[in-house]
Fold each of these.
Amino acid sequence: MKLLLTSAGLSNKKITDFFISKLPKNLNKCSFLIVAYVQDEEEQSYVDYSKKELADLGIKDITYFNLKENEFKGSKKYDVIYVCGGNTFSILNRMRITGIIDFIKNSMKDNKTLYFGISAGSIIAGPNIEVASWGSIGDTNDISLKDLTGLNLTNISIFPHFEDYLEGEVDEFRKKVDYPVVELKDDEALFIEGVKNKIIK
């Protein structure tokens, strides 16, 4: 599987250049599925920014699915599945309700599709999303989601929006789990391909 997990998307040129280098096709031939849970104008503005960012790179084939919908009915094969940020618990819950979670997992089995995560989208790719509520900047589990199992596309859990003052919190979380935890600052990304991984910054 190929995953590019970010804290804040294409936040610097190194991440953007690396992202382009890992696309399975030329930019103008790649198909993208953007997945987000948008409930208000502010959240929509983030999605619109992501769409523009991709369009400015020359990407033309962009499909958008709002997890607010009742059901995901798509069957098209996408080159990139692009999962946006937000409240991690709500996003994972809506992925299950709409059925897109199974579509994403099945899409990743061919080892050709690239999974691109931003913040919550990066956390969800891992084994468990419990890190999302950890520490002083964590999400709140307002919906009381009990099953925190992630997509399991990787055994690595991402701690996004990391800053140096949070180091103690991350270390405490590492002590309580049995899987690797990688912290990412907003200008960093983690690329995973099979058993290999690499930090881009």
Amino acid sequence: MEKQGRSYSLEQKLDTLYQFKHSGKSMRAFTKDFGIAFVTLKKWLGLEQLEDFKALEPSHEWKRYSQDTKNAAVHDRLVNGLSQLDIVKKYQISSTSVLRRWVNQYTNGKEIKATSKGQTTHMKQGRTTSYQERIEIAQYALAHEKDYHTTANHFNVSYQQVYTWVRKYEKDGINALQDRRGKRLNREPEELSEKERLELRIKELEERNDFLETREDLAKKLREIQRRNQ
């Protein structure tokens, strides 16, 4: 049962919706297993369909994690192979995107520090983007296994922008990323040349290859550490 007064970040709500859509479970079964109210999930689904991310986003959010907790969570992910969802539940982490951020810090050689008391997380504001940029951003996120947070930081856009573009790209392809708001409805459809399409595809494959190589290198290092400790 959902705890009274529990607060959810925007990232946690979007991650929960993602988990539900890929769980193969009914809303009743999922909410029971996940520990949230049925009406809460139903409300989030409705707001997501309307793309009303402002209504999903809380006014403020903060949760403190010790350095030991962060390191233990990363260890469970990289060494023990636990799923992101299992780790989030085990350590009461606010969202899977927070866990991915810690893993990303570790794999890039950065020290994982405790969350400072009083630290407040504000969602990055969105910015205007071109059609080609939106395609590149969606492809980058997919190449990095839907790491929305890292993608948002890399391209200086908002988390919810990345989430929306990836969702549209997966459903209807690159044409769904055309900007058809307001006066743009009367404009000619945005088109990419064959060269531009190929360049974007090459970037996507390069990013995916770099991501897989980094993960394989890390796995080798971890296996070597385990071998030395035996």
